[in-house]
Structure to design on (283 residues):
């Protein structure tokens, strides 16, 4: 897997006015296609959020939240927009569709090369002038933010992984057995493409990417928060506990009572606590 630079903006709409320069934060929503280091076009949206309303500080003082959605999500899905609105109370927000999802190009590799998509989004956030970046990922996106922080040191200032697996090839729950059918069977990939609007790559991983639990020890000293519901139907609580054990005293675990899986299960109160945590830890 390539770990080179993230790439550049390939095409954009609603661009800021011409005197806006690289490194100067903008105060309007932008929609853009980013180009990853392996040439995939990634649909991305920037919302200045709190930057617009807090005139007591310069925009660069505010953190930017880069949100990595779960498998079958996309930048325009209602649950992704809800998360973006929640974080916009605390800073600017970048959302994007992983490869194979929504309007982005390519095909999903279910957490492998998606690290390059996140790297492109983080680089764009920096180019827009934000000195502090927090990555927040859900489910598959949770595994991606962990691996990104390990493979791209110093690109992010705080990492939050929500409802992430600790290890690959887990089939211990019915939802994960269904997901493996979608990913590994030709007929499953057809269902995913036309029923879930998610295009999945047909090739197996080669080599098998660094697993989330292997990535976690490499993240320090970047602040790390692991969030998981004790009613998660995809990954039981041994997954977050494995991640927390791998992080040792360099990470923090929130095991949320009654919470299910990923974005749909993350209530506004929890998203608010995550927003406050990122603001407090991102420097």
């Amino acid at each position: 897997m390539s770990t080179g630079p993230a790439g550049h903006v390939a095409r954009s709409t609603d661009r800021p006015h011409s005197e806006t320069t690289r490194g100067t934060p903008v105060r309007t929503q932008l929609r853009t296609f980013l180009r990853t280091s392996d040439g995939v076009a990634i649909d991305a949206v920037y919302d200045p959020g709190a930057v617009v309303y807090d005139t007591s500080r310069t925009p660069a003082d505010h953190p930017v939240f880069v949100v990595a959605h779960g498998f079958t999500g996309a930048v325009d899905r209602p649950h992704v927009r809800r998360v973006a609105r929640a974080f916009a109370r605390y800073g600017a927000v970048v959302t994007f569709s992983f490869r194979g999802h929504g309007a982005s190009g390519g095909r999903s590799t279910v957490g492998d090369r998606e690290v390059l998509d996140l790297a492109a989004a983080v680089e764009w956030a920096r180019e827009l002038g934000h000195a502090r970046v927090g990555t927040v990922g859900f489910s598959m996106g949770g595994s991606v933010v962990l691996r990104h922080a390990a493979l791209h040191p110093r690109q992010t200032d705080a990492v939050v992984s929500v409802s992430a697996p600790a290890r690959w090839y887990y089939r211990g729950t019915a939802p994960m057995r269904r997901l493996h059918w979608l990913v590994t069977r030709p007929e499953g990939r057809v269902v995913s493409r036309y029923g879930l609007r998610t295009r999945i790559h047909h090739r197996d991983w080669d080599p098998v990417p660094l697993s989330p639990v292997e990535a976690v020890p490499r993240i320090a000293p970047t602040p790390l928060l692991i969030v998981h519901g004790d009613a998660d139907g995809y990954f039981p609580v041994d997954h977050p506990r494995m991640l927390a054990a791998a992080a040792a005293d360099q990470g923090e675990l929130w095991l949320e009572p009654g919470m299910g899986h990923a974005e749909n299960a993350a209530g506004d109160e929890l998203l608010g606590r995550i927003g406050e945590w990122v603001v407090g830890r991102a420097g």
